[in-house]
Amino acid sequence: MRIVRDRQSPTTVIAEFVLGPEDIIRLVQVVKEDLARLGEHNFARYRVTLEQVCTSIADGRPQG
């Protein structure tokens, strides 16, 4: 997840995809849900390190 690993905003990452408006809305929802669930117990699933997750949480989870 470049949003956590590279500290990019969700808006920046999502803007790279060529999607219709309805698909963008759904993708934003999915990203926000994943970010809300991301934690010390499941970080490997998202291919980020524990340190990256802890830093992201301590800095405030990305909002969009």
Automatic annotation (TrEMBL):
Domain of life: Bacteria
Protein name: Uncharacterized protein
